[in-house]
Amino acid sequence: MATEAALQHYHELVEVLRARRGASPETSYVAQLYAKGLDAILKKIGEEATETVMAAKDGVPDAVIREVADLWFHSLVLLVHLDLDPDAVWVELARRSGVSGLTEKAARGNSAQRKE
Fold this sequence. Notes:
single chain; Helix Hairpins; globular; amino-acid biosynthesis; phosphoribosyl-ATP diphosphatase activity
């Protein structure tokens, strides 16, 4: 379970990511990603997802934690870049709490079919 300090750090990180939108790409890695645009951010997320899978297959718990942290970090960068509230992800997860994964997946499948 996340500690209060970890939750505080999360909120501070989100604020830093928001502030980096106005930072110089010469002084900030995140500002560089924002300046390069959506495709660069998506590419980085793909790389981190692949590295997460590889770490899991290698069976090294510390490596899995590090790679998931990278994946989550870059996912937060994406959300901020798109001007979406990262807390909305937690709201969505809470909405799914207590709902069977099979039921939830079936409901998403039906809504995807309706969009077509």
